[in-house]
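Risk register update: the risk of archive-format incompatibility is retired. Evidence:
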Amino acid sequence: MSLSTHVLDTMHGCPAAGMTVALHAVEGDAATLLKRMVLNADGRNPDGLLLGHAELKKGCYRLVFDVAGYFKARGVALPEPNFLNQVSLDFAVAFPEQHYHVPLLVSPWSYSTYRGS
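Archived output:
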């Protein structure tokens, strides 16, 4: 059906507007970049879905979130190197006729994710 993401900044209690996210298709050790985006004011892809019905296929995917870049841009003093640089989430789509929503809740020191609706 489709794939979407949403990022919430748990340090500031707001959407992670301006965070860069990359979506890859993964086969074995190879990852192919499908798209890169900068999240909008709501912490979502400004173009809507990451993949629509015709694009979402059964298989493995990776979302890469530029956590350190986002928090540095927000003026957060981070140690060098930062505890979290990029967060990579590998997940699989078993039922492409369903919607897959992959949210990320993140701070400079922790993150959480789940399959949303």
